[in-house]
Amino acid sequence: MAYVDLNPIRAGLAKTLRDSEFTSIKERIEENQTDLLGFGQGENNLPYYLSSYLDLLDQTGRIIRDETHGFIPVKMTSILTDLNLNPNSWLDELKAFKSFGFSAVGTVQQLQRYSKETSKNWSVGIKLEPKLE
């Protein structure tokens, strides 16, 4: 999947992931609804968070290879910054985890599943930013 998403950059046809025509990453960046598999912990999801995949593509795309024409320039801002995503924001949210008495961390679906699995009608938890799910 990453190979295909980076193809337009490696071929010198695009300078950014956002400009990579006909790729799943462009669709994921621009579309709120997509027929592509989601990211996260769901049963039918890819077992990664979107922010992790974006970072993987960004870092991989910056590697200069002799046999390819293109790469993401080092001076270009990262895709996470470009999309106003902070991969460390969830760490910031967790700083006061114990002091506030939280019992779980995750997406809304994960928190709901946790409550059900622990036979609780509710649980105190931290919901991840939707962009980081």
Mind explaining what this structure looks like?
- The chain is mainly alpha-helical and 133 residues long.
- It has 2 domains: 84 residues, no CATH class; 43 residues, no CATH class.
- It has 6 helices and 2 strands, in the order αααααβαβ.
- The protein has a two-stranded parallel sheet with strand order 1-2.
- Strand 1, helix 6 and strand 2 form a beta-alpha-beta unit.
- The model has no long low-confidence stretch (mean pLDDT 72).
Overview in brief:
The chain has six helices and two strands, in the order H-H-H-H-H-E-H-E.
Sequence stretches where pLDDT stays below 50 over 5 or more residues: none
From the N-terminal CA to the C-terminal CA, the straight-line distance is 19 Å
Beta fraction:
under 5%
Following the backbone from N to C, one meets helices and strands in this order, namely HHHHHEHE
Average pLDDT metric = 72
**Number of helices, where a helix is a run of at least 4 consecutive DSSP H or I residues:** 6
Shape estimate: elongated
State the helical fraction.
25-40%
Number of strands: 2
What number of structural domains do the residues give? 2
Please state how the strands of the largest beta sheet are arranged side by side.
1-2
Describe the largest sheet: 2 strands, parallel
Alpha-carbon Rg, integer: 18 Å
Structural class: mainly alpha
